[in-house]
């Protein structure tokens, strides 16, 4: 198979996986403290919590990318709780009490990840993107939807580059990028 055909196949698989991921919606009561309302506090909360999970799984810390954050904001502003279908890895959460709790919901999926049978699962897709070793940057945004389009409270979108959750026949990408 040519490199070009393989690249197209991998891209199609990545987009397909992103499209079928479950979402994380919480019924917790969100607090309107600085972790939601102050840009620096929000960014720190996301990065600190994300990088804590990544460290525990042998992945390097992510750095913040303003272009990814702008993309995430553009997507979130509609308060429509669905994936953007873009070129980046993407995690969504809504209704959590804090940015940290949103990331923790994704990270806690790791309890269900099977190291003996690695690969993509709707139940663990947020976790695997969160700790994907090849990912180097993240940018996130939040919008207080407060029920608009049935999206509760604060709606968080995080974009990751390069995208994770790359599916292959032998799950080698998961073996290489998700450490238990």
UniProtKB/TrEMBL annotation:
Transmembrane segments: none
Signal peptide residues on this chain, from the entry's feature table: 1-19
GO cellular component: extracellular region
Pfam families: CAP
UniProt keyword annotations, A-Z: Signal
Domain (SCP) ranges: 41-168
Protein name from the UniProt record: SCP-like extracellular protein
Lineage: Eukaryota, Fungi, Dikarya, Basidiomycota, Agaricomycotina
